[in-house]
Design a protein that fits this description.
2 domains; membrane; mainly alpha; 67% helix; ECF_transporter_component; transmembrane helix; ABC/ECF_trnsptr_transmembrane
Length: 260
């Protein structure tokens, strides 16, 4: 049975409640989404890198999981450079492709903003255990317990999809069904996986209802979620990163509301 990738339990981040990590990531993300300048993104990336360097995370496990984000930032920068809003000096033009000072600046800001928002989010969630996150959301954030527990149960079953896909592929190949075209083979596998997921979800719902997960009223928790000094320090650091990025951007005259 496959499970989701285990959370990284080493380093200073392991002491912080998952709800605090989620709050810090959202705070930085919403702050950077309010502007489109590159100064705030650079400040955020530098400060985030400095903070993450002292967390004690095993970078051999972190860097491979950051590669899709880095590739996405590069692709977004290239696309914005070629097809962004033209302004200023024209460096190269061919058909609808036009590279200008404005498109280059906006491309740099876009790529940096993706990294500034994505890197802390990915790193923080790599250190979060789904069960602890559900406990924090239900007990600290006060989200509905039925929703949180149902989402946790569904998340725990995601890892089974890979085992199901592999088992269905081998079974269909042994029966000679996989000898058809690739499109038909994948369509059959997706449909079979969908039917299997519906059946498993129905059984899980029945089991959870029979154990009282859907009952109304106050609920007890096996693992109490609490906030401590580490959570206060983490939230203060997140607020400081967001505030410093905004202050530097405004002081340099680079701040530009995304709605304007």
């Amino acid at each position: 049975m496959s499970a989701l990738l285990p959370a990284i339990r080493s380093g200073l981040l392991a002491r912080i409640n998952p709800a605090t990590k989620l709050g810090c990531a959202l705070l930085v993300a919403f702050t950077l989404l309010a502007t489109v300048d590159w100064v705030s993104a650079v400040v955020a990336v530098v400060l985030e890198s400095a903070v993450l360097a002292f967390t004690g995370l095993p970078w051999r496990r972190v860097l491979p999981r950051l590669m899709p984000l880095i590739v996405a930032a590069l692709l977004a920068g290239v696309t914005t450079t070629l097809y962004g809003v033209p302004s200023g000096r024209v460096w190269w033009q061919w058909g609808v492709v036009e590279v200008t000072d404005g498109s280059i600046g906006f491309a740099i800001a876009t790529a940096l903003r993706i990294l500034a928002i994505g890197v802390p989010s990915v790193v923080l969630f790599l250190t979060i255990d789904p069960t602890e996150l559900a406990d924090g959301l239900a007990q600290i954030v006060r989200l509905p317990a039925r929703f949180v527990i149902g989402a946790l149960a569904a998340l725990r079953l995601v890892g089974l999809f890979f085992d199901d896909w592999r088992a269905l592929s081998l079974a269909r190949r042994a029966r000679g069904v996989a000898d058809r075209g690739r499109l038909q083979r994948y369509a059959g596998l997706v449909f079979a996986l969908l039917v299997l997921a519906i059946r498993r979800g129905t059984k899980l719902t029945t089991a959870m209802e029979s154990r009282g997960f859907g009952a109304a009223g106050p609920r007890s928790w096996a693992r109490p979620a609490t906030l401590g000094r580490a959570d206060a320090v983490a939230f203060a650091i997140g607020f400081a990163i967001a505030a410093t990025a905004v202050a530097v951007s405004v002081s340099t005259g680079s701040w530009h509301w995304i709605a304007s």
